[in-house]
Amino acid sequence: MSTSQQPDPRDRPARLTVGVVGAGRVGPALAASLQLAGHRPVAASGVSDASRRRAGHLLPGVPLVPPAEVLQRADLVLLTVPDDALPALVAGLAETGAVRPGHLLVHTSGRYGTRVLDPARRAGALPLALHPAMTFIGTPVDVQRLAGCSFGVTAPEELRMAAEALVIEMGGEPEWIAEEMRPLYHAALALGANHLVTLVAQSMELLRAAGVAAPDRMLGPLLGAALDNALRSGDAALTGPVARGDAGTVAAHVGELRRHAPQTVAGYLAMARATADRALAHGLLKPELAEDLLGVLAEGTVGPGSAGAGEDEGDAR
User: Fold this and answer.
1) Alpha helices by DSSP H, the chain
2) Average pLDDT of the chain?
């Protein structure tokens, strides 16, 4: 019988049994990536039919059981539920005695650090916050996308090595985020990624309305270049009529959007104002042109039927 001491998970995780509570798009992909690193998924929980199908596809042979049973079977438990559901889930698991000392509990919420896991920590769990800065679609492609993906990591000092090891084993790169900075960190990612999807979808709709047969093919190279330039150069990459101060062009845009896609006007104006402010602050927009441009953007907020709208606008509804 071997008398060798087992590795301490506080230093580096040994081969672990892995459980997933919340088989949405994220949990099964992370568990599958840990399986590739030699860990063993043993249980998952999921409520919807889609979650169950996803778990069956990414984690074949892994049984679907209630959350408390996932904790009974696994050493490392991924809590991959929506942000707003996480505090109640953790409190409930702790209150029912499902958490045992030495459990590695990992949540993937961008919003929270490890403080949300305090009820489980008091029961002896080892808390980690590992948020992959990646969008997931619920297919094996997600596992491939984790290669080189940054993870926002928050962990107690004594668990930093364990957190780093897990992220690296999933193919990611750890980026340490202080507990109090988690909401700001998450807001930054949502601003860039979530709003980007909305902007691209709106742009494709407008191109279809303008008669473009393949808006995705048209936008792909343009958006790829814009993203690359922005990541390399920041505000110096700003181009277009707002950055140039072409007030007449911007006014024409607003007029066309009001006629063809009024639901996009508010977003266009908000982004144009933000772009103008940044271009002006970085010396890209000449002050003498900024006045006319900002005037157009201010007038654009007064829509048909709004206070201050002229008679012509009212008649044109």
Assistant:
1) 26-36, 49-58, 67-73, 86-95, 118-122, 141-145, 160-169, 182-189, 195-209, 215-233, 241-244, 247-260, 265-281, 287-300, 311-315
2) 90
